[in-house]
Amino acid sequence: MHRIDQTTEQMIRSVLAYAENRLRMDPVPLDQGTLSSSELYARLDGVIRDRNRPPDEVLGIYASIIAPSVISADSPRFLGFIPAAPTKASLLFDMLVSCASIQGISWLEASGAIAAENTVLRVISDEAGLPAGAGGCFVSGGSAGNLSALAVARETAKQRAGRSGRFRVVVGTDAHSSVVNTLRLLEMDALIVPTPDHRLTADAVRAALADAGDLSDIAAVICTSGTTNAGIIDDLAGVGALANDYGWWFHVDGAYGGAGLVAPSVRHIFDGVELADSFIVDPHKWLFAPFDSCALIYRDPVLGRAAHTQYASYLDPVTVDGEWNPSDFAIQLTRRARGLPFWFSLAVHGSAAYRRAVEQTLSVARAGAELIRKAEHVSLLLEPDLSVLIFERHGWRAADYERWSTRLLDEQTAFVTPTSHHGRPCTRFAVVNPVTTEDDLALIIDTMK
User: Fold this and answer.
1) Taking a C-beta distance cutoff of 8 angstroms, is the pair 344, 90 a contact?
2) DSSP letter at 338?
3) What are the start-end ranges of the H helices in 162-286?
4) What integer pLDDT is reported at residue 1 of this predicted model?
5) Which of 104, 166, 232, 253 gives the lowest tally of CB atoms within 10 Å of its CB?
6) Number of H helices, E strands in the chain
7) How far apart are the two ends of the chain, measured CA to CA in Å?
8) pLDDT tens across 185-195, in order?
């Protein structure tokens, strides 16, 4: 066996020591340095050069310049956008996956990794009530998942219609931004259904169809199980039944909210997800896995394979009937085995712990909603379905929210971002970290007085 040189030995010790220290941080600090863009680039200029540098020197540059200039999404007070709360188990195993250079392209090259990932996909499919034959793969995130799934919807519509040309997809006004971008890339048109209460319903779709002309070009309908801005779950059962009646592909985007399937207190509002032809959920959002990871599942994987399998002479060894190749179910060929950290964490902690953790975040969100109801200076704008709270501070304009958000981060109090609701400036909490407490939310609400 090749002997590791002294420099590499020291690098291993230093990097692992840094990683161990980061893993032991409790709570995780927010960070976000004060360096401007020009200062950051100036500090990093010349780090890469012809001559080598001691690994400890480069690690020091990361620790002193790069790391402090990155907001920690796993901090319990990171409540903007959709945060992350990876378990220590998942983070440790993510290191192992990288150290072992595990890729997850084909069964030939990575059967063990793919089999483990598939067991996790089976768990998610069972939670959603999908049939025993459902399956798919892990991709980078919701955007890649939506693109891959809707590409299959388009190709399936072409086969059923016996023609090519442009197709339409029914979407609500609160669909994720990646959906609109996906339809543009796939040269499909959006049949936008107004959703003034933020929830796409079967009745709203029927009303839109009355003015939609010839319906033969409709390929799919998309529901969201947990909208990004407000955490609202669409009428999955009603829209899913309507899709079945019309023969449309039914896609459910659960990138954020799909994790709520494991929480008994809210499981009933996901009724209808079992009708989905394709379903996505991001474990890196609310299922406590590290970035980046999206579970993409098809009711009938054969349709996914028909749309995505790539053919070339150099791929002949992996294009084998009966073998499960993740590259056959999404837009990518090369991929890391990004489902393995989630698999390890779920196996270590058990599904019951996951249910408790999601329920904990829901409990904190409900407590936060009650704090807002009782406070005189703020008001809830929507009653929460899940763990997102959208609310306003009386009398504030957009600039007030911007200044407040900047001050919270500058003071390392919290990371909370402005948003809008029906054109009105406001803000929101996204609670996905089980370590976030009611006291954290109370402190932040109090800063708005």
Assistant:
1) yes
2) T
3) 177-185, 202-209, 236-246, 283-286
4) 55
5) 166
6) 15, 11
7) 65
8) 999 999 999 99
